[in-house]
Amino acid sequence: MGIPCHFALFELQPSFRLDLEQLATRYRELARGVHPDRFADASEREQRSALEQSARLNDAYQTLKSPAQRARYLLKISGHEVPMEVTVHDPEFLLQQMQWREELEDLQDSADLDGVAVFKRRLKAAQEQLNESFAACWDDAAQREQAERLMRRMQFLDKLTYEVRQLEERLDD
């Protein structure tokens, strides 16, 4: 038996646009059924199986709830697996990345917490725009190359958002 598709696990059709509340609700329902505590008195084999199912469910949920990871997963299951590290031929976005990095360094150097909040809102808007662009081109099989480019941009913004949160925490202390 093959590994079930993450979407099938949650009884969803493969799609970039997901109702995240519905996904979270279904996750909690399924997690209760395979939680290792429910198998405390079961055989070692059943305990191991519950643990594996729980891990698979957690992995599927983490993948589907993140737009960038969901985009990568959709590309993968459609036969367009994208290597993690490749040279990106996206000069426009590379320039944007450098500008964001410089701006983040300036905010760090000046310890500007208000500026960080504004920067964070701009990143969130950029992420939402990328998500919409990916969703639109995902529905068109002829645009898989563009979908891959957008997914890479999404991954970068996820990483940058994480770095902004870390900076916020350091400045908040």
TrEMBL record:
Q: What is said about its interaction partners and assembly?
A: Interacts with HscA and stimulates its ATPase activity.
Q: Does the keyword Transmembrane apply?
A: no
Q: What are the entry keywords? A: Chaperone
UniProt signal peptide = none
Task of the protein: Co-chaperone involved in the maturation of iron-sulfur cluster-containing proteins. Seems to help targeting proteins to be folded toward HscA.
Q: What protein name is recorded for this chain?
A: Co-chaperone protein HscB homolog
Q: Which family does it belong to?
A: Belongs to the HscB family.
A GO term from the CC aspect:
iron-sulfur cluster transfer complex
GO MF annotation, one:
protein-folding chaperone binding
Record-linked HAMAP family: HscB
